[in-house]
Structures are given as structure tokens and as C-alpha cells.
Amino acid sequence: MRPAHVFLAVLVAAVWGVNFTVIEVGLDHFPPLLFSALRFLVAALPAVFLVGPPKVAWKWIVGVGLALGVAKFGLLFIGMDVGMPGGLSSLVLQVQAVFTALFAVVLLGERPTRVRVAGMAVALAGIGVAAVDEGASGPLTGFALVVAAAACWGVSNILTRKASPPDSLNFMIWVSTVPVLPLLALSLLLEGWSADLAALRSLDWSGAGTVLYVAWGATVFGFGAWGWLLHRHPASTVAPFSLLVPVFGMTSAALFLGESITPLRWCAAALLVGGVALTSLTPGSPRGAGISASNHDEPARTKGG
């Protein structure tokens, strides 16, 4: 890769890592489901009128929109709202690579290599260490919700692989149109009209800035730049940069939010990042030729929040 392309890959990882700190700030302004709905609303508009019509079937757009937008981000934002630290969230979410590999075995008939199975075991050990660390300092409910969010991300990864979108930015913008109404409906049902209205009435520059960052920075720029890199380089070259996301996530949370990084958390980080590297960067053993092409793209799905 050219130095400029390396810089862009690192920049995307930084934007995605810092995104978790921005989410923490945004949750001080909005109820979590409303915040998530606003993220996708601002990401979709006006971009949906600029990227052209969808380039894959609507069933894939709706499926990924529900799994990624409603389930994954809804659970993530609620988990962080009930106490899961942003830096730790950026780390724990990386277990989505393990869920993706497991779902590929069940749903796509892939036979994982021994190295990949070892990677899953190492990553799951990291999740165990992170759970012990979080259990000693905070509620495990938020931790469990973020792990569930990672599982939903794994489902969306499988759907995305089946969809095989030729234009990742076009796909992500159209996917962003799907979660808005379901998230708004859930917010009204679970968070209440009065809480949503109060958050919107008290909107200030700080709150607006968090929405713009998670929508245009993490979603539009992040996915657009990542897709641009994947069009010019093999997925196996680009994907390792995604392992920098929890590094930037934990560092930014420590710098700006005062989150402590305990020795147990460092241990969890080493296990998770190492396990995810083995899991997502090692090709599986596909059962048929049709899965082989999808398998080549899998590392490209290991992204940040």
C-alpha cells in the first residue's frame, strides 16, 4: 500500500475507535435508542439522494438494516447507557469476528481450519478476562448487551457476505434508511415521548456534534473510505488495520473520559486482538466453490462502531 493509503486506513480505524468515546458523550444528551435513530437518519439524509439506487436486492438491505442498525447498534447504545465503558465496548465488540466465523460454519457450511478454531478460543478467553474485569468494577448487564450486539453484528456480516454489494458506500447508505423508523418506534415505546422530546428541545452544539460525528464521520466517511481501500487492495491487506480500532477506542476513552485501563483489561485486549487476528485473517476451509469467493471477503467485514 502507498503511504497515503496506509494513512487513510489508520485514520478510518482512529475515527471508528474515537467513535465509542463520542457515543459516550452523546448518551449524556439523548436516550440510547433515539440517539441511534438520529445516527442513521443523519447518515441516510441527504446521502441517499446522491449515491444512486440500491445495487443489491432489498431483502439484503432490510436484513442488514435490522440486524446491524436496529439490533447491533440498539443493544450497543443501551449497553453503554447502562454502564459499559466506551473503551471496553470497542474491545469487546471485536468478538463479532468469532460470531461471524461460527455463523459461517452453521449457515454457510464452512469448515474452519485449526488455526481459526484456536483464534476463536483465544478471543473467547479474552472475553472471559474482560468479563471478570468488568464484573469487578461495573454492572455485567451492559457487558452482556455489548456481547449480544457483537452476535447481531455477526449475523449482519453473514447477510452482507450473501449480498456481496459491489459498492459498500451505496450499500451502507441504503442500509441506514432501514433502522430509523423501527428505532424511533422502540424509543417512543421504551424511552417515552417525554424523554425524547426533552432531549430534542435541549439540543445544543455538543449534542448535535456527536450525532454528526457518528453519522458522517463513523458511518459515511468510515465506510466510504474503507470501501475505497478495499477496491484498490486485497481484503487481507486492508483488514488488519481494523485491529487498531480498540487501540484508539481504549486510548481515547482513557484520555478524554478518564477510563482506567487495568492490567486485566490489557490482558483481555491482548487475547481478544490476537484471537480476532487469527480468526478473521485466516481463511476457512469452504465446502464448495460458491463459499470460497465469499470467504475471501470476510476480513473486510471486521470493522469498528
TrEMBL record:
It is a multi-pass membrane protein. The chain crosses the membrane at residues 33-53, 60-80, 86-108, 115-132, 138-159, 171-190, 210-230, 237-257. This is EamA family transporter. It is found in: Membrane. The lineage of its organism: Bacteria, Bacillati, Actinomycetota, Actinomycetes, Kitasatosporales. Belongs to the EamA transporter family. It holds the Pfam family EamA. The keyword Lipid biosynthesis does not apply. Its main location: membrane. SUPFAM superfamilies: Multidrug resistance efflux transporter EmrE. The keyword Aminoacyl-tRNA synthetase does not apply. Residues 6-129, 141-280 form the EamA domain. Keywords: Membrane, Transmembrane, Transmembrane helix. It comes from the Bacteria.
